[in-house]
Amino acid sequence: MAGSGNNNVPGNLDQRLAGLGVGDSNDARAGGKTGGNGPKRYIPPHLRGKPPTEVVDKSAVLERTSSWNGDMAARDRSRSTERAAGGDVPRAAAGRDERGDTSDVRRSGFAGGRGDPMERTTTWAGRRDDGRGFGGRGARGGPLGLWAGGKHVYGQRNPRTEAELFGTAEDPERMHTGINFEKYDDIPVEASGRDAPAPITNFDEADLEPLLLENIKLAGYTVPTPVQKSSISFGRAGRDMMACAQTGSGKTGGFLFPILNESFRNGPAAAPAGDGRGHYRSRAARPIALILSPTRELASQINDEARKFCYRSWVRPCVVYGGADIGMQLREVERGCDLLVATPGRLVDLIERGRVSLSCIRYLVLDEADRMLDMGFEPQIRRIVEKEDMPGVEGRQTLMFSATFPRDIQMLARDFLKDYIFLSVGRVGSTSENITQKIEYVEDEDKLSVLLDILTSGDPTRLTLVFVETKRMADRLSDDLLYSQLPASAIHGDRTQRERERALEGFRAGRTPVLVATAVAARGLDIPNVSLVVNYDLPNEIDEYVHRVGRTGRAGNTGNAVSFFNRGNRGIARNLIDLLKEANQEIPDWLPVVAREGSGFGGGRGRGRGGYSGGSSRGGGFRDQRSSLGRGDRDFRPSNGAPSAAAHGRSGGGGARGSGSGHGGAPSMPPAFESDSRNSWF
Ligand SMILES: Nc1ncnc2c1ncn2[C@@H]1O[C@H](COP(=O)(O)OP(=O)(O)OP(=O)(O)O)[C@@H](O)[C@H]1O
């Protein structure tokens, strides 16, 4: 508590809070429980001096906030239903609600139906057997091209569809590259594997299919990112790839470009004669490319990207994921599906219904493979890849993307990839230097007040993503922020798809510039202009941290991340120090002290799955790769048989820029006495 002698709160934090003019409050913190006059509510700076009702009148606030995007009001209603039902609403009830209104899903493109409405109403007249070849008119990529007579016939350009797919230069929801985009070229790239082909240098001279090049330009891409440079050339050489690259550095294009380049060049695959399923599969869609993704939002986002680059081509992208109306997804798939983006569970469902056959798959992508395993998808993934009708490893090209490469991912790679190239852009699992990362010592009971200070100290319209550990906390915190008149919404796994979608939409559009999220939003989500990520609760896993902060500082833009740390987070301290050092970030003096405490308590390097044990002691002969890429303790490639490494980019690295005393800091310095001369947060 402020001034109450809590030794764990840095003194300067007290000063900061005291300097904020709390007014009549003796206790500057939210829910202050001490102080001579009893509990006092923390009053954020923007509400100080206003009548107290402004702060506490929940209904008034809710009414106001409902006009931000209806999100809170909707949630409040659903909570009353929950309460009336005596607690937890059965999932089926939530599902009914979600399935009951499909118009929203369609409108926002979550089911892939974002195309020109005129085209959406066009009757689909059968595309495979109409004598016109493959392709035709359709909604998902705008006007579709054809594959006819062994040739790729492009669809007509359509300005309306282009504006919808690619946005306009002024569109705030369009990602623009940032000042540091060119610095991606300074990141060391390593490709290990037999005869790894040289990367391309730019889009224009890469002999890309003309339509793909046109679409890349419409998307506003002028220079390929390192992962794209390599993957395009690997794709052309027909090589399998396992890739790790920093957040926001263009991995989606990294798998879409090689797949589409080859597909545009070679046309569709003929269905294998008598694929053994006979009539049962006669209605099945037979995509040539399958992209597996862990979450609905990520699948949907990949589909949106695919729609851009498939524009006017014969390739029809399609997306399926759980939690949404399966009937509509079935209809979409039936209308044609050449590139399928799917979450594993829903795909298994469609396969079981005989509506998707994998017999024509030529390209398989596993995006965020480590996350899919964390989420328990391995049985479904193995079934999809090994036990259905997908061509074996020799008959397809497989690309895997993963933040880490521990044993279980290696097993998948061993089984799913052939003679593959391991591509790493920067050290495996590192964060981008485009993100300024700060670690603040904040006790749990002080978190809300510090968050309010942060949110009210900067531009109120900036997009801020706040990560918490639990779904309940996400709801509670977004409510707290709403009470303080900060437009906030929440996204987590217990919210219906429609609510999740709404929350994301409101956030993207800036109507609710604060989004409180659980890990569900940590991976892959690409939202332009997120300028601040707050780890209200730090995760236990360092990889999760990397993905969370990676929601800002994307495509060469700069971003900020602040993490609230206290002794409950000791387990992540060492990995955090390594990470901060490597990304040239400041390391608070107290962090190494706490990290040492952590190791005393058996905390330290807990990595959950796989764990790190420093190399050979793991029996499997995993090596702690320390190369030009810097520290490699999250790169678990086998030491035996590891192919020779070929540097693909400039080597570099550099030490920590921060003042951090690092591991050698004064051991007696307790966290409570962190020195900090900063006047403002960001
Ligand atoms: N060559 C490029 N030129 C300009 N912008 C690009 C380029 N490649 C990707 N982008 C943009 O950069 C942003 C990040 O790309 P993407 O989402 O593919 O990153 P990622 O590496 O998959 O990130 P994450 O690890 O978080 O999933 C996107 O908005 C994308 O449109």
From TrEMBL:
Residues 434-595 form the Helicase C-terminal domain. SUPFAM superfamilies: P-loop containing nucleoside triphosphate hydrolases. It catalyses: ATP + H2O = ADP + phosphate + H(+). Keywords: ATP-binding, Helicase, Hydrolase, Initiation factor, Nucleotide-binding, Protein biosynthesis, RNA-binding. Residues 201-229 form the DEAD-box RNA helicase Q domain. Residues 1-10 have a biased composition (Polar residues). It holds the Pfam family DEAD. A motif (Q motif) lies at residues 201-229. InterPro entries: DEAD/DEAH_box_helicase_dom, Ded1/Dbp1_DEADc, Helicase_ATP-bd, Helicase_C-like, P-loop_NTPase, RNA-helicase_DEAD-box_CS, RNA_helicase_DEAD_Q_motif. Residues 232-423 form the Helicase ATP-binding domain. The keyword Aminoacyl-tRNA synthetase does not apply. Residues 133-142, 601-620, 650-665 have a biased composition (Gly residues). Residues 1-142, 601-682 are annotated as: Disordered. GO terms for molecular function: ATP binding; hydrolase activity; RNA binding; RNA helicase activity; translation initiation factor activity. Residues 73-82, 94-107, 621-637 have a biased composition (Basic and acidic residues). Its EC number is 3.6.4.13. PANTHER family: ATP-DEPENDENT RNA HELICASE DBP3. ATP-binding RNA helicase involved in translation initiation. Remodels RNA in response to ADP and ATP concentrations by facilitating disruption, but also formation of RNA duplexes. Belongs to the DEAD box helicase family. DDX3/DED1 subfamily. This is ATP-dependent RNA helicase DED1. It comes from Coemansia thaxteri. The gene is ded1.
